[in-house]
Write a structure and sequence with these properties.
Blueprint (H helix, E strand, L loop, with lengths): L1 H15 L5 H4 L4 H6 L2 H11 L1 H18 L1 H4 L20 E3 L5 E14 L6 E24 L3 E10 L16 H37 L1 H16 L2 H10 L7 H31 L3 H8 L4 H9 L4 H24 L11 H6 L4 H6 L5 H23 L6
Antiparallel strand pairs: 1-2, 2-3, 3-4
Helix pairs in contact: 4-16, 5-7, 5-16, 7-8, 7-10, 7-13, 8-10, 9-10, 10-13, 11-12, 13-16
C-alpha cells in the first residue's frame, strides 16, 4: 500500500514538473539550448509569443501594401468621380437577394437620389444591378517605384464604380487613398526611429561613459526638451518650415522634428546602461588590454544590451506614427497632395462630417491596428530579450 502511494506521488510530481512543460522546452534539444547564442534564444522565445508572431504577420502584410500600393489599389489616389461624391462604403456579396450563390464576388450598384426635404444627396442600393469584381485587371497606368510602367491592378469592376470604403467630398476612392497613405505613415516611423536611435545612443553613451560635465549638460538638455509641451513645440517647429518647400522636403522635415523630440527617452536608458556597465570586469579588462574607447563602446558595451535597444526601437515606431498623424490631423504636418493617414483624417475634424459621413474616419482604424501590432511585437521582443526568465 505504501509503495502504491509513493508511485502515485512520483507520477503526480512528474506531471506537474516544469521540465515536461512543452511551452518551456518547445521540443528544443537540451544540448542546443545550452550552447545557443543570445539571438537564437530570443528567436525561440519570441516564437512562443503567439500574439506577437501574429502581429508581426499583420505588420508584414501592411508593409507589403506600402511597398506596392499602386498595384493593390483599384484607382489612383487623385482620381475623381463627380457622380459619386461622399458615397458610403459598398458591401461585397457572394449571395444575391434571391439567395443564389455567385463564385465571383460583386457589389450592388447605387442610384443617386435627392431628398426634397433636406436637399441632401442619398445613394440607394440597386439590387437589380450587380457589379462583379475581377482580379488583376487593367486600370489607370502608373509607374511602380517610379521606374517600371504598368497598368495592372489587383482588382476592379467593369464600370469602375465600386468603392469599398466609400468616397470623400471630391469623389475620390477612400480605399485607394488609405493604401497610398500607408507609404508615408509607415515609412515615417522607421526613418524617425533610426534618427532617434542614432541621437539617443550617441548622447546617452557620451553621458553614461564619460560622465562629469558632459553628463550634466546632456541631462539638462533632455530635461528642457521634456519640459516643453509637445503640441506647442510641434506647432512652432512646423511653422518654421518655409511654405515653398516641396512635399518631399516637408516629409523629411517632419521626420526630423519627430526624431528631435523622440530621442530623449532612449538616451536616458542608454545612459543608465552605460553607468552600470562601465565598472564591470569585462570593460575594465578591455581598458587594461589597451582597447580604444570606440572599440570598448561599440564592441563590448553596446552589444551587451542590443536586444533592449531593439525592443525600445520597436516600441518607439508607433509613437512616431501617432506623432505624424497628430501633426497632419491638426494641419501643421504633411499637407495635400501628400497622402498619409493623418492627412486623410484631417477631413473628418468637424462633428458634421463625422455625423454625415462616418466612413471618413476609417483611416483611424488602420492607425489603431498598426499601433497595437507594434506594441504586441514590442512586448514579444521584450519578453524574448530575457530568454532565461520564466
Amino acid at each position: 500500500m505504501k509503495s502504491d502511494e509513493i508511485d502515485a506521488q512520483k507520477k503526480k510530481a512528474e506531471d506537474s514538473s516544469p521540465i515536461e512543460d512543452s511551452s518551456q522546452t518547445d521540443e528544443i534539444p537540451e544540448e542546443q539550448l545550452y550552447v545557443a547564442s543570445q539571438w537564437q534564444l530570443m528567436k525561440w522565445r519570441f516564437k512562443k509569443h503567439k500574439l506577437a508572431v501574429g502581429a508581426l504577420v499583420v505588420l508584414a502584410f501592411f508593409y507589403l501594401i506600402a511597398i506596392i500600393p499602386q498595384s493593390m489599389a483599384p484607382y489612383h489616389y487623385q482620381e475623381r468621380n463627380q457622380e459619386r461624391i461622399l458615397t458610403p462604403p459598398q458591401r461585397v456579396h457572394f449571395f444575391d437577394e434571391e439567395g443564389n450563390f455567385h463564385l465571383r464576388p460583386f457589389v450592388y450598384g447605387l442610384t443617386e437620389e435627392i431628398d426634397m426635404e433636406t436637399w441632401t444627396r442619398e445613394y440607394v442600393v440597386d439590387t437589380d444591378k450587380k457589379n462583379f469584381i475581377y482580379f488583376f485587371v487593367e486600370g489607370t497606368p502608373y509607374r511602380l517605384w517610379g521606374q517600371f510602367p504598368s497598368n495592372i491592378r489587383l482588382f476592379g469592376v467593369e464600370e469602375r464604380n465600386a468603392y469599398l470604403f466609400g468616397t470623400d467630398q471630391l469623389g475620390r476612392d477612400l480605399f485607394s487613398r488609405v493604401l497610398y497613405g500607408a507609404r508615408i505613415s509607415l515609412s515615417i516611423g522607421f526613418i524617425g526611429v533610426i534618427l532617434s536611435l542614432v541621437m539617443g545612443i550617441t548622447m546617452g553613451g557620451i553621458a553614461g561613459y564619460y560622465g562629469g560635465v558632459l553628463d550634466n549638460i546632456i541631462q539638462r538638455v533632455i530635461e528642457i526638451l521634456r519640459s516643453i509641451p509637445q503640441i506647442p513645440m510641434w506647432m512652432a517647429l512646423s511653422a518654421a518650415l518655409p511654405p515653398g518647400w516641396s512635399p518631399v522636403m516637408v516629409y523629411f522635415a517632419i521626420t526630423i522634428i519627430l526624431s528631435f523630440i523622440g530621442w530623449t527617452d532612449l538616451a536616458r536608458e542608454v545612459r543608465g546602461k552605460f553607468l552600470s556597465l562601465r565598472d564591470e570586469d569585462f570593460v575594465i579588462a578591455a581598458k587594461l588590454s589597451g582597447s580604444s574607447e570606440r572599440k570598448i563602446i561599440f564592441k563590448h558595451m553596446l552589444p551587451s544590451f542590443m536586444s533592449h535597444i531593439i525592443t525600445a526601437a520597436t516600441l518607439s515606431i508607433p509613437w512616431m506614427i501617432l506623432g505624424e498623424t497628430q501633426l497632419s490631423f491638426l494641419g501643421i504636418g504633411l499637407r495635400p497632395p501628400v497622402i498619409s493617414w493623418g492627412v486623410l483624417l484631417e477631413t473628418a475634424q468637424n462633428f458634421r462630417t463625422v455625423m454625415m459621413s462616418p466612413w471618413l474616419m476609417i483611416p483611424g482604424i488602420f492607425v489603431i491596428i498598426i499601433v497595437l501590432a507594434f506594441n504586441f511585437v514590442g512586448d514579444g521582443l521584450r519578453d524574448a530579450a530575457d530568454p532565461y526568465s520564466e
